[in-house]
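pasting input
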Amino acid sequence: GAVVSQHPSWVICKSGTSVKIECRSLDFQATTMFWYRQFPKQSLMLMATSNEGSKATYEQGVEKDKFLINHASLTLSTLTVTSAHPEDSSFYICSARALHTGHYYEQYFGPGTRLTVT
Amino acid sequence: TQLLEQSPQFLSIQEGENLTVYCNSSSVFSSLQWYRQEPGEGPVLLVTVVTGGEVKKLKRLTFQFGDARKDSSLHITAAQPGDTGLYLCAGLGAPYGNNRLAFGKGNQVVVIP
């Protein structure tokens, strides 16, 4: 299957600083990538959909000025959490969409990034 | 309202037993994907089902897509401790269109050695 990497796998930062998380599709090109947030013992919550070369589409309630998304190439999307606060502490997971040979889409997920804001 | 309902939410069984978990919806999906997620990791894609009535097998895991493409099941034969994890189903289609997945809350499976 297709491989998606995320970096860093975990990060601790101080309140008020910014943190950038990278998501890469390693063996396929992804015109569309997704960013999710997951709280303990809960399912995935979609934050935004990112299309290469265009602005991201944010879900309702997600602050676009706080969670900056850049999808500059077909293999790289970044999420920057600006002016992080303790309530931003969470598990962030990116996903990349690939077109299967059977002409349907499949989504592959990265390993996730654990963000802790102190 | 949850678009995809997964049941049971939690299941604990002994090694060697069989189990079936379900993913149900009132909506029709163009495709449905099953993932397994372990603590602290991202979901790993197990299978994608596309055709109504389709059955796919992955070693001891059998996935079935309902005839109407509204529901799916996952059956594990002779479960092993390595099968422990959160099983997530995710559908592509109405009402979100083909641009994003709708996720269920997951089936937490624990296989006791």
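fyi The mean pLDDT of chain A is 93.
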